[in-house]
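I have been asked to look over a protein record a colleague put together. This is what I was given:
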Amino acid sequence: MIDFSVIWFTIIVFATLMYIVMDGFDLGIGILFPFNTDKTERDMMVNTVAPVWDGNETWLVLGGAGLYGAFPLAYSVLADALSIPLTAMLIGLIFRGVAFEFRFKATEEHRAFWDKSFIAGSILATFSQGVAVGAILNGFEVTGRTYSGSALSWLAPFPLFCGVGLVIAYALLGCTWLIMKTENELHRKMSALATPLVIALLVVVGIISLWTPLSHADIAHRWFSTPNLFWFLPVPVLVLLCSWGIVRAIKREAHYSPFLLTLALVFLGFSGLGISIWPNIIPPSISIWDAASPPQSQAFMLVGSLLIIPMILGYTFWSYYVFRGKIKADEGYH
């Protein structure tokens, strides 16, 4: 018998990972704006994602719609428990999107306002996403099929620290994306910034990797009991190897490998999250099967998804292919 819950969980995880990767370097560019005040270089930074940025949210919509239809209990709990950070995320995305377009059309006296809005929206959206991830790792109080915790349960040290950590991770994604897409002085500035960001991200990952098992005995057992310890040991080892590879690639002035290795770091971090909570979709005790909608509903949705996901992948690949290569100072898309 086909397990539609596992299939839909895989689809949602894939959509979420695609969103993190694609919108991650997009948001990262806004986070990096304070490190570069040159007007021409800021325009170049934005132009590296101008042709593709608004399609990145497609994956967020797909993941949210899939969660609503395939796991309605999980959707309702997350909507109640994380209403404030999710609303803040949407406000940040709206401000970032509006500022993205308006900064090119604004007069010189108003451009600074839209640049600041771009920075604030990017940081707010990223921080809110990190807080949501940290709150999910902490788990939620659920009575029956209803969230019974506080609307401020996310307002705790661990979720807030995860928010800061994701800001650093997206900044590194944006930095290595710009290394790949730019040249000359902007390329050198981003190359100089990449190594400190790698070190900061390693520190954050190390703290979270210790904090999580110390706070949750079930997660500690998942990672450190045998034979799980040997199965999951490659994850932290690969994190260290990828970080070392990024630093080495920066030193030899590589263009593509820093970004590709950062993508690998993101994938490994996402894998660690999955290992910690599987098979629960709402920690600590609601599994994907507990939260699932009827198999008939999941099967009906799957038919549409098998049509639309290849289309999304197709136009995403084509847009990135068309606008491949380095961006020039005299090129723009507005």
In short: The beta strands are 142-143, 146-147, 280-282, 286-287. The radius of gyration is 20 Å.
